[in-house]
Design a protein that fits this description.
Helices cover 38% and strands 16% of the residues. The chain has 394 residues and is α/β, with parallel strands linked by helices. Bound molecules: pyridoxal-5'-phosphate.
Length: 394
Protein backbone atom coordinates (compact mmCIF):
# COMPACT_ATOMS: atom_id res chain seq x y z
CA UNK A 1 0.00 0.00 0.00
CA UNK A 2 2.85 2.44 0.80
CA UNK A 3 5.38 1.08 -1.71
CA UNK A 4 4.08 3.54 -4.31
CA UNK A 5 5.62 6.34 -2.23
CA UNK A 6 9.10 4.81 -2.63
CA UNK A 7 10.79 5.06 -6.08
CA UNK A 8 13.04 2.09 -5.24
CA UNK A 9 10.09 -0.27 -5.53
CA UNK A 10 9.02 0.90 -8.96
CA UNK A 11 12.61 0.73 -10.19
CA UNK A 12 13.42 -2.77 -8.97
CA UNK A 13 11.84 -6.18 -8.62
CA UNK A 14 13.73 -6.98 -5.42
CA UNK A 15 11.88 -8.21 -2.35
CA UNK A 16 13.52 -5.90 0.14
CA UNK A 17 13.79 -7.40 3.62
CA UNK A 18 16.95 -5.69 4.87
CA UNK A 19 15.39 -2.70 6.61
CA UNK A 20 17.48 -3.22 9.73
CA UNK A 21 20.53 -2.34 7.62
CA UNK A 22 18.94 0.63 5.92
CA UNK A 23 15.44 1.66 4.87
CA UNK A 24 14.21 2.83 1.48
CA UNK A 25 13.50 6.54 1.02
CA UNK A 26 10.14 7.98 -0.01
CA UNK A 27 10.04 10.34 -2.98
CA UNK A 28 9.24 13.31 -0.73
CA UNK A 29 12.58 12.79 1.05
CA UNK A 30 14.53 12.48 -2.20
CA UNK A 31 12.72 15.53 -3.62
CA UNK A 32 13.48 17.64 -0.56
CA UNK A 33 17.20 17.02 -1.06
CA UNK A 34 17.10 17.58 -4.81
CA UNK A 35 15.20 20.81 -4.18
CA UNK A 36 17.95 22.02 -1.84
CA UNK A 37 20.68 21.23 -4.37
CA UNK A 38 18.78 22.55 -7.39
CA UNK A 39 17.01 25.59 -5.99
CA UNK A 40 18.73 27.14 -2.96
CA UNK A 41 22.05 25.36 -2.41
CA UNK A 42 23.98 27.58 0.02
CA UNK A 43 25.80 27.14 3.30
CA UNK A 44 23.99 27.62 6.62
CA UNK A 45 24.70 30.04 9.49
CA UNK A 46 27.27 32.01 7.48
CA UNK A 47 26.19 34.20 4.59
CA UNK A 48 23.25 36.55 4.68
CA UNK A 49 21.76 36.48 1.18
CA UNK A 50 18.33 35.10 0.32
CA UNK A 51 19.14 31.47 -0.48
CA UNK A 52 21.59 31.21 2.42
CA UNK A 53 18.83 32.42 4.72
CA UNK A 54 16.43 29.84 3.25
CA UNK A 55 19.00 27.07 3.79
CA UNK A 56 19.58 28.18 7.40
CA UNK A 57 15.87 28.45 8.06
CA UNK A 58 15.12 24.99 6.62
CA UNK A 59 18.06 23.51 8.55
CA UNK A 60 16.80 25.01 11.82
CA UNK A 61 13.20 24.02 11.02
CA UNK A 62 14.51 20.46 10.65
CA UNK A 63 15.94 20.67 14.17
CA UNK A 64 12.52 21.76 15.41
CA UNK A 65 10.80 18.92 13.52
CA UNK A 66 13.11 16.38 15.16
CA UNK A 67 12.66 17.98 18.58
CA UNK A 68 8.88 17.76 18.24
CA UNK A 69 8.96 14.28 16.75
CA UNK A 70 10.80 12.79 19.74
CA UNK A 71 9.15 15.18 22.22
CA UNK A 72 12.35 16.81 23.45
CA UNK A 73 11.94 20.00 25.47
CA UNK A 74 14.08 22.41 23.47
CA UNK A 75 15.55 22.73 19.98
CA UNK A 76 19.01 23.09 21.56
CA UNK A 77 18.75 19.51 22.82
CA UNK A 78 19.08 18.22 19.24
CA UNK A 79 22.64 18.06 17.90
CA UNK A 80 23.22 16.85 14.36
CA UNK A 81 25.73 14.08 13.66
CA UNK A 82 26.49 11.60 10.87
CA UNK A 83 24.36 8.93 12.52
CA UNK A 84 24.14 6.79 15.61
CA UNK A 85 27.78 5.68 15.41
CA UNK A 86 29.00 9.27 15.53
CA UNK A 87 26.44 10.18 18.19
CA UNK A 88 27.72 7.45 20.51
CA UNK A 89 31.37 8.23 19.81
CA UNK A 90 30.65 11.91 20.50
CA UNK A 91 29.04 11.29 23.88
CA UNK A 92 31.61 8.62 24.80
CA UNK A 93 34.54 10.96 24.27
CA UNK A 94 32.94 14.27 25.26
CA UNK A 95 31.06 13.22 28.36
CA UNK A 96 31.10 9.56 29.37
CA UNK A 97 34.90 9.25 29.48
CA UNK A 98 34.95 10.71 32.99
CA UNK A 99 32.76 7.93 34.41
CA UNK A 100 34.53 5.13 36.23
CA UNK A 101 32.12 2.52 34.90
CA UNK A 102 30.11 2.18 31.71
CA UNK A 103 27.31 -0.40 31.69
CA UNK A 104 26.09 -1.81 28.37
CA UNK A 105 24.00 -4.90 27.54
CA UNK A 106 24.94 -8.13 25.81
CA UNK A 107 22.71 -7.23 22.84
CA UNK A 108 24.66 -4.17 21.73
CA UNK A 109 25.72 -3.28 18.20
CA UNK A 110 29.48 -2.81 17.74
CA UNK A 111 28.83 0.95 17.60
CA UNK A 112 28.00 0.76 21.31
CA UNK A 113 30.91 -1.53 22.21
CA UNK A 114 33.99 -0.42 20.29
CA UNK A 115 33.87 3.28 21.39
CA UNK A 116 34.29 2.01 24.97
CA UNK A 117 37.29 -0.13 23.98
CA UNK A 118 38.84 3.04 22.53
CA UNK A 119 38.83 4.30 26.13
CA UNK A 120 40.75 1.16 27.14
CA UNK A 121 37.74 -0.23 28.94
CA UNK A 122 37.23 -3.96 28.98
CA UNK A 123 34.96 -6.35 30.84
CA UNK A 124 35.41 -5.74 34.58
CA UNK A 125 37.82 -2.90 33.85
CA UNK A 126 35.55 0.12 33.39
CA UNK A 127 33.02 -1.82 31.31
CA UNK A 128 30.21 -4.01 32.64
CA UNK A 129 27.69 -5.99 30.60
CA UNK A 130 24.10 -6.75 31.59
CA UNK A 131 23.31 -10.36 30.72
CA UNK A 132 20.24 -11.39 28.82
CA UNK A 133 18.31 -14.57 29.57
CA UNK A 134 17.65 -17.53 27.25
CA UNK A 135 14.89 -15.50 25.52
CA UNK A 136 17.27 -12.56 25.11
CA UNK A 137 15.37 -10.48 27.67
CA UNK A 138 17.35 -7.76 29.47
CA UNK A 139 18.11 -9.09 32.96
CA UNK A 140 16.85 -6.32 35.30
CA UNK A 141 18.14 -8.14 38.41
CA UNK A 142 21.65 -8.36 37.03
CA UNK A 143 21.38 -4.70 35.98
CA UNK A 144 20.45 -3.68 39.51
CA UNK A 145 23.39 -5.65 40.93
CA UNK A 146 25.73 -3.84 38.56
CA UNK A 147 24.22 -0.46 39.46
CA UNK A 148 24.58 -1.24 43.18
CA UNK A 149 28.22 -2.20 42.91
CA UNK A 150 28.96 0.64 40.46
CA UNK A 151 26.90 3.63 41.61
CA UNK A 152 26.97 6.83 39.51
CA UNK A 153 27.95 4.96 36.37
CA UNK A 154 27.15 5.67 32.72
CA UNK A 155 24.59 3.33 31.15
CA UNK A 156 24.50 2.94 27.38
CA UNK A 157 22.02 0.42 25.97
CA UNK A 158 20.13 -0.19 22.80
CA UNK A 159 16.38 0.35 22.59
CA UNK A 160 15.79 -2.34 19.92
CA UNK A 161 18.36 -5.00 19.07
CA UNK A 162 19.23 -4.83 15.38
CA UNK A 163 20.23 -8.50 15.44
CA UNK A 164 17.12 -9.99 17.07
CA UNK A 165 14.48 -7.26 17.19
CA UNK A 166 14.30 -7.48 20.98
CA UNK A 167 12.84 -4.33 22.60
CA UNK A 168 14.35 -3.10 25.85
CA UNK A 169 12.03 -1.39 28.32
CA UNK A 170 13.82 1.95 28.20
CA UNK A 171 11.56 3.67 30.72
CA UNK A 172 12.16 0.96 33.35
CA UNK A 173 15.90 0.78 32.61
CA UNK A 174 16.28 4.56 32.88
CA UNK A 175 14.23 4.78 36.06
CA UNK A 176 16.31 2.10 37.79
CA UNK A 177 19.57 3.63 36.56
CA UNK A 178 18.57 7.08 37.82
CA UNK A 179 17.68 5.57 41.22
CA UNK A 180 21.36 4.60 41.50
CA UNK A 181 22.64 7.97 40.25
CA UNK A 182 23.55 6.71 36.78
CA UNK A 183 23.30 8.72 33.55
CA UNK A 184 21.63 6.96 30.61
CA UNK A 185 22.25 6.97 26.86
CA UNK A 186 19.99 5.00 24.51
CA UNK A 187 20.98 3.72 21.07
CA UNK A 188 17.79 4.43 19.14
CA UNK A 189 19.08 3.36 15.70
CA UNK A 190 16.28 0.83 15.21
CA UNK A 191 13.52 2.71 17.05
CA UNK A 192 11.97 5.43 14.92
CA UNK A 193 11.16 3.19 11.96
CA UNK A 194 8.89 1.08 14.14
CA UNK A 195 7.52 2.86 17.17
CA UNK A 196 6.94 6.19 18.83
CA UNK A 197 9.69 7.46 21.09
CA UNK A 198 9.12 10.15 23.69
CA UNK A 199 11.96 11.77 25.60
CA UNK A 200 9.66 12.91 28.41
CA UNK A 201 8.36 9.36 28.98
CA UNK A 202 11.70 7.62 28.53
CA UNK A 203 13.43 10.29 30.64
CA UNK A 204 16.82 9.11 29.30
CA UNK A 205 19.66 11.64 29.22
CA UNK A 206 20.94 10.98 25.70
CA UNK A 207 19.16 9.33 22.75
CA UNK A 208 20.94 8.59 19.47
CA UNK A 209 19.00 8.50 16.18
CA UNK A 210 19.85 7.81 12.57
CA UNK A 211 18.41 9.21 9.32
CA UNK A 212 18.99 6.24 7.05
CA UNK A 213 17.31 3.73 9.41
CA UNK A 214 14.26 6.01 9.44
CA UNK A 215 13.41 6.40 5.72
CA UNK A 216 15.78 9.38 5.57
CA UNK A 217 19.17 9.98 3.94
CA UNK A 218 22.45 8.25 4.80
CA UNK A 219 25.20 10.13 6.65
CA UNK A 220 22.91 12.08 8.93
CA UNK A 221 21.62 11.55 12.43
CA UNK A 222 21.33 13.32 15.74
CA UNK A 223 21.89 13.00 19.43
CA UNK A 224 19.29 14.22 21.89
CA UNK A 225 21.01 15.68 24.96
CA UNK A 226 18.87 16.48 27.98
CA UNK A 227 19.20 20.21 28.60
CA UNK A 228 20.83 19.83 32.02
CA UNK A 229 23.83 18.05 30.43
CA UNK A 230 24.45 20.51 27.60
CA UNK A 231 26.88 22.58 29.66
CA UNK A 232 28.88 19.54 30.79
CA UNK A 233 29.37 18.36 27.25
CA UNK A 234 32.70 19.17 25.62
CA UNK A 235 32.82 19.64 21.85
CA UNK A 236 33.98 16.48 20.10
CA UNK A 237 35.50 18.51 17.30
CA UNK A 238 35.78 22.25 16.70
CA UNK A 239 36.28 24.61 13.77
CA UNK A 240 34.17 26.82 11.55
CA UNK A 241 30.67 27.63 12.78
CA UNK A 242 31.38 26.60 16.38
CA UNK A 243 33.07 29.75 17.62
CA UNK A 244 32.21 33.20 18.84
CA UNK A 245 35.68 34.79 18.76
CA UNK A 246 39.14 33.52 17.80
CA UNK A 247 42.65 34.91 18.01
CA UNK A 248 45.93 32.99 17.86
CA UNK A 249 45.94 32.36 21.59
CA UNK A 250 42.39 31.30 22.33
CA UNK A 251 38.84 31.04 21.14
CA UNK A 252 35.40 31.28 22.69
CA UNK A 253 32.70 28.87 21.66
CA UNK A 254 29.11 29.52 20.66
CA UNK A 255 26.22 28.22 22.73
CA UNK A 256 24.64 24.78 22.18
CA UNK A 257 23.93 23.25 19.77
CA UNK A 258 26.20 25.22 17.41
CA UNK A 259 29.40 24.64 19.36
CA UNK A 260 28.95 20.92 18.70
CA UNK A 261 28.32 21.15 14.94
CA UNK A 262 31.75 21.90 13.50
CA UNK A 263 32.22 22.53 9.79
CA UNK A 264 29.65 22.51 7.03
CA UNK A 265 26.87 20.14 7.97
CA UNK A 266 25.05 17.60 5.80
CA UNK A 267 22.47 20.27 4.98
CA UNK A 268 20.52 18.29 2.38
CA UNK A 269 20.68 15.28 4.70
CA UNK A 270 19.30 17.18 7.66
CA UNK A 271 16.45 18.59 5.55
CA UNK A 272 15.73 15.12 4.16
CA UNK A 273 15.82 13.58 7.64
CA UNK A 274 13.15 15.99 8.88
CA UNK A 275 11.08 15.30 5.76
CA UNK A 276 11.29 11.57 6.53
CA UNK A 277 9.91 12.20 10.01
CA UNK A 278 7.07 14.26 8.52
CA UNK A 279 6.39 11.33 6.23
CA UNK A 280 6.27 8.92 9.20
CA UNK A 281 3.80 11.27 10.91
CA UNK A 282 1.70 11.23 7.75
CA UNK A 283 1.64 7.39 7.76
CA UNK A 284 1.11 7.36 11.53
CA UNK A 285 2.61 5.03 14.13
CA UNK A 286 -0.80 3.46 14.74
CA UNK A 287 -0.82 2.24 11.15
CA UNK A 288 2.84 1.25 11.26
CA UNK A 289 2.33 -0.83 14.39
CA UNK A 290 -0.78 -2.59 13.03
CA UNK A 291 0.88 -3.39 9.68
CA UNK A 292 4.13 -4.56 11.21
CA UNK A 293 2.48 -6.72 13.84
CA UNK A 294 0.52 -8.60 11.18
CA UNK A 295 3.63 -9.06 9.03
CA UNK A 296 5.82 -10.11 11.94
CA UNK A 297 3.33 -12.72 13.16
CA UNK A 298 2.81 -14.06 9.65
CA UNK A 299 6.57 -14.29 9.08
CA UNK A 300 7.02 -16.09 12.39
CA UNK A 301 4.21 -18.50 11.59
CA UNK A 302 5.56 -19.32 8.12
CA UNK A 303 9.11 -19.76 9.39
CA UNK A 304 7.89 -22.07 12.16
CA UNK A 305 6.76 -24.56 9.51
CA UNK A 306 10.32 -24.93 8.17
CA UNK A 307 12.06 -28.15 9.15
CA UNK A 308 15.03 -27.58 11.47
CA UNK A 309 14.32 -23.89 12.16
CA UNK A 310 16.18 -22.50 15.17
CA UNK A 311 14.97 -19.27 16.80
CA UNK A 312 16.82 -17.49 19.61
CA UNK A 313 13.90 -15.53 20.99
CA UNK A 314 10.14 -15.66 20.74
CA UNK A 315 8.39 -12.70 19.16
CA UNK A 316 7.09 -11.39 22.47
CA UNK A 317 8.61 -7.91 23.08
CA UNK A 318 10.29 -7.94 19.67
CA UNK A 319 9.77 -5.91 16.54
CA UNK A 320 11.08 -5.53 12.99
CA UNK A 321 13.85 -8.11 12.81
CA UNK A 322 13.47 -11.91 12.97
CA UNK A 323 16.70 -13.90 13.25
CA UNK A 324 17.09 -17.63 12.84
CA UNK A 325 19.22 -20.51 11.62
CA UNK A 326 18.34 -23.80 10.01
CA UNK A 327 19.79 -27.03 11.37
CA UNK A 328 22.75 -28.26 9.30
CA UNK A 329 22.61 -25.36 6.81
CA UNK A 330 25.23 -22.59 6.52
CA UNK A 331 23.54 -19.17 6.53
CA UNK A 332 25.93 -17.93 3.82
CA UNK A 333 24.61 -20.60 1.43
CA UNK A 334 21.05 -19.40 2.03
CA UNK A 335 22.10 -15.80 1.35
CA UNK A 336 23.73 -16.70 -1.97
CA UNK A 337 20.75 -18.72 -3.16
CA UNK A 338 17.95 -16.36 -2.12
CA UNK A 339 19.87 -13.43 -3.61
CA UNK A 340 19.61 -15.21 -6.98
CA UNK A 341 15.85 -15.28 -6.38
CA UNK A 342 15.90 -11.50 -5.80
CA UNK A 343 15.43 -11.56 -2.05
CA UNK A 344 17.42 -8.92 -0.15
CA UNK A 345 18.23 -9.85 3.43
CA UNK A 346 21.27 -10.02 5.66
CA UNK A 347 23.10 -13.01 7.09
CA UNK A 348 26.05 -13.00 9.50
CA UNK A 349 26.75 -11.43 12.87
CA UNK A 350 24.86 -8.16 12.16
CA UNK A 351 27.63 -6.10 13.84
CA UNK A 352 26.84 -7.87 17.10
CA UNK A 353 29.60 -10.48 17.45
CA UNK A 354 29.56 -10.72 21.27
CA UNK A 355 25.94 -11.93 21.44
CA UNK A 356 26.59 -14.39 18.59
CA UNK A 357 29.57 -15.76 20.56
CA UNK A 358 27.42 -16.02 23.67
CA UNK A 359 24.86 -18.05 21.71
CA UNK A 360 27.64 -20.23 20.28
CA UNK A 361 26.87 -19.29 16.67
CA UNK A 362 28.67 -17.38 13.93
CA UNK A 363 25.57 -15.53 12.87
CA UNK A 364 21.98 -15.77 11.77
CA UNK A 365 19.71 -15.22 8.81
CA UNK A 366 17.87 -11.97 9.48
CA UNK A 367 14.66 -10.80 7.86
CA UNK A 368 14.00 -7.20 8.82
CA UNK A 369 10.68 -5.59 8.00
CA UNK A 370 9.30 -2.10 7.50
CA UNK A 371 5.71 -0.94 7.20
CA UNK A 372 5.90 -0.85 3.37
CA UNK A 373 6.47 -4.60 3.22
CA UNK A 374 3.45 -6.79 2.58
CA UNK A 375 2.34 -10.40 2.88
CA UNK A 376 3.45 -11.02 -0.70
CA UNK A 377 7.04 -10.11 0.26
CA UNK A 378 6.95 -12.72 2.98
CA UNK A 379 5.45 -15.32 0.64
CA UNK A 380 8.17 -14.59 -1.94
CA UNK A 381 10.82 -15.00 0.74
CA UNK A 382 9.38 -18.23 2.17
CA UNK A 383 9.09 -19.73 -1.32
CA UNK A 384 12.71 -18.76 -2.08
CA UNK A 385 13.88 -20.14 1.26
CA UNK A 386 12.13 -23.46 0.69
CA UNK A 387 13.60 -23.70 -2.80
CA UNK A 388 17.09 -22.93 -1.45
CA UNK A 389 16.67 -25.57 1.24
CA UNK A 390 15.55 -28.20 -1.21
CA UNK A 391 18.67 -27.48 -3.33
CA UNK A 392 20.98 -27.60 -0.29
CA UNK A 393 19.40 -30.72 1.20
CA UNK A 394 19.35 -32.68 -2.06
C1 LIG B 1 21.42 -0.92 16.99
C2 LIG B 1 22.32 -0.12 16.09
N1 LIG B 1 23.16 0.76 16.63
C3 LIG B 1 23.97 1.53 15.86
C4 LIG B 1 23.98 1.42 14.50
C5 LIG B 1 24.83 2.34 13.67
O1 LIG B 1 24.01 3.33 13.13
P1 LIG B 1 24.50 4.35 12.00
O2 LIG B 1 24.53 3.58 10.72
O3 LIG B 1 23.47 5.44 12.02
O4 LIG B 1 25.84 4.85 12.41
C6 LIG B 1 23.14 0.49 13.89
C7 LIG B 1 23.19 0.28 12.43
O5 LIG B 1 23.12 -0.84 11.97
C8 LIG B 1 22.27 -0.29 14.70
O6 LIG B 1 21.41 -1.16 14.16
Amino acid sequence: MFKKDFPYFSNSDITYLDNGATTQKPKVVIDSQVEYYEKYCSNTHRSNFGHANTATQNFENARKTIKEFINASKNEEIIFTKGVTESINFIASSFAKKFKTVIISSLEHHSNIVPWHMQNRSLGNGLEVVKCNENLDFDMEHFEELLKTNPNSFVSVTHISNAFGKIHDITAITKLAHDYGAVVMIDGAQSLAHLKVDMQTFDCDFFAISGHKTFGPTGVGAIYVKEKYLNDLEPYQTGGATIHQVDFNSSTLLASPYKFEAGTQNIAGVIGFARALDYISHVGYNNIEIIEEELYKYLDHELSTIDGIIFYNDIHDSIGSRSFNIQGIAHDDIAILVDKMKIALRVGHHCAQPIMKQLGIKGTIRVSLAFYNDLNDINMFITALKKALSMLRD
